[in-house]
Specification:
The protein is α+β, with helices and mostly antiparallel strands. The protein is built from five helices and seven strands. It is globular, with a radius of gyration of 15 Å. The protein starts with a strand and ends with a strand. GO terms for molecular function: acyltransferase activity, transferring groups other than amino-acyl groups. It comes from Clostridium carboxidivorans P7. InterPro entries: Acyl_CoA_acyltransferase, GNAT_dom.
Length: 168
């Protein structure tokens, strides 16, 4: 299934609120998102993304028929890693396993490599998140290794996998 990536709009807040009130999604994201997630939280997020430095933060809504079904972002690192960026994303549970994540990741990588000087994009999904690992693999990312005991989420010490794609 194909999706479209586009800039965020304040009107997307209700969709994000609905998506992020799902613990299955929050449990696969980094900490810092409130639960329950309110429309005010969503509006604050959208405002932050719209006002972020356009040279370091590339944030997009993932949409189907102009309805937000997820979020994807690429965040430039600094210093000697200034041409490297980290990618993160989530998809509404109803759209898992339908190719939406793969479509969005491919579109964003193409955009980043064509429109910036970034030469490497990496992602670090939790090792147990097989779906996210498959999205990255199907999008051309290479598995670089397992980061053992790399995170603590919900009080559990977890491994993470490291994937990357480089500009050819």
């Amino acid at each position: 299934m194909e999706c479209t990536i586009r800039s965020w709009k304040i009107e997307d807040a209700a969709n994000i609120t609905e998506i992020l009130n799902n613990k299955k999604i929050l449990d696969n994201l980094r900490d810092g998102l409130p639960y329950p997630y309110t429309e005010k939280d969503a509006k604050n997020f959208i405002s932050a993304m719209l006002n972020a430095d356009k040279n370091t933060t590339y944030a997009f809504a993932i949409t189907i028929n102009n309805k937000v079904v997820g979020s994807i972002g690429v965040f430039r690192k600094d210093n000697i890693h200034s041409q490297t960026a980290e990618m993160g994303y989530y998809i509404e549970e109803a759209y898992w396993g339908k190719g939406i994540g793969t479509s969005a990741v491919k579109q964003v990588c193409k955009y980043i490599f064509q429109n910036t000087d970034i030469i490497r994009i990496f992602a670090e999904p939790f090792a147990y998140n097989i779906g996210s690992c498959r999205v990255l693999e199907k999008s051309g990312f290479l598995y670089e290794g397992t980061l053992r005991k790399n995170a603590v989420k919900n009080g559990v010490v977890l491994d993470m996998k490291l994937y990357s794609i480089v500009k050819e």
